[in-house]
Amino acid sequence: MRERLAWLRLEERRPDLADQLADTERTRGWEAAMDEWIGLLERRSRWTAAAFQSAVAGQSNPKWVEHALDCLEHAQNQRFATFPLLLQAQALRPLRGHARFRAILRGLRLEGRACFEAR
Questions:
Q1: pTM for this one?
Q2: Measured on CA atoms in the order 84, 90, 92, 93, is the torsion positive or negative?
Q3: Could you read off the pLDDT of 57-79 as tens digits, one per residue?
């Protein structure tokens, strides 16, 4: 969560939001803060960003893995030209073995490519 707060303060120039999330983390825990942060990304239709954040959080809680896959399905529907490239990101590596991730690859005709193998 600390990295996300630093990013909000620097890149998004939203210290107010960073302070709000820091307060949530302090009072209700990091998962509650992640819920808020990911919810904000979703409300802005930033589905790939929400997927990345959910996938990283999924390393410690399986509920986030399913959420990351939900977000990727939303992102796939937006048809960004760079979406296939984003699917290769290290943060999404833990999702590569899931049937839903494979279905996204099939839909993009990317299934079976070495860069998407679950290693």
A1: 0.80
A2: positive
A3: 877 778 888 999 999 999 988 88
